[in-house]
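Z., the sequence and structure:
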Amino acid sequence: MSEPLIERYRDRLPVSDATPVVTLGEGSTPLLAAPRLSERLGRELWLKWEASNPTGSYKDRGMTVAVSKAVEEGAAAVICASTGNTAASAAAYAARAGLPAVVLQPRGAVAGSKLAQTRALGATVLEVRGSFDQALAAARELAARGTHALVNSLNPHRIEGQKTAVFEIVEELDGPPDAFVVPYGGGGNTTAYARGLRELGATSRLVSVEAARRPTTLATAIRIAAPAHAAGVAESGAEVFSVSDEDIVAAWRDLAETEGLFCEPASAAGLAALRLGLVDAARVVVTITGHGLKDPETAAAHAPRAREVDPDPDAIASAA
């Protein structure tokens, strides 16, 4: 297992010797050159592959810190509202810590594989008859009663953990790129990246890309009508762009077919902005936030169909 994220960046995180480190080996994710897309887009493009985190998304960076601090502070349980990735991460790290986890998910708005992952990890999953924003409000109210630790990105420890992606990128490139590009759902990751850039004194552009139809986008991970960190995103100075679902799908296919990265659709929002010419920078890092297996239903709907063929070499050769 790689060095736990908390140990690697202990001097930059709100932890002490008294903090129990709850880890699954998160962080230290690959930063991959994208030579074919770079040539096509006329710039140096790098892809931060956060899908290799333990539960398949970038959420694990913040969750290791949030759950470690929850244990340190004597929490009896954790709670979150989620469109999927936070749920799986909270369930996994709570299980690792021996804590119960309660997950509130908006009914019918979460990819089935994420729901299955969360249930398999032992969380109590409650499907709320309402929106994500209503589920989050309920989670916040329950946490305010002191019975549960809220581990959504409103928990400041989540932001602290997520900022470490910026440190890793700058370390690997021996300096900051001209622009960092991230998807924009709730805005927590944009806020975290802004904090990481400030702490390093870096002046790179920060670009945050949302779905044009937030409440109904096929990219379920960023299907959030009222971003909890909207104010933080505004204060961060990030440039915010909107892209259509059609642009997201086209970028998603590009990542898979051109560079071999199978991500969930929301993760392709950043590349969609580049393909549309919205980001003018020579050296760009696009963060790919979650694995494609997080949302196989959407993949099956938009990937090329399999074709039937007879078990004959000539038939196979002509069809290939």
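The radius of gyration is 19 Å. The mean pLDDT is 94.

Let me know what you think.
H.
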